Amino acid sequence: MTCRRYSPAIGLLFMAAAAAPSWGQQAAEMPAMHEHGAHHHGQMMPDEHAAHRAAMQQTRYSVTLENYAVPDVELIDESGTPVALRSLLAADQPVAVNFIFTTCTTICPVMSATFAQLRQELGPEADRIRLVSITIDPEHDTPAVLARYAEHFGAPPGWSFLTGNPGDVERVLRTFDAWTGSKTSHRPVTLMHRQGGGKWVRLEGLGSGAALADQARTVIN
Question: What global pTM score does this model have?
Answer without folding.
Answer: 0.77
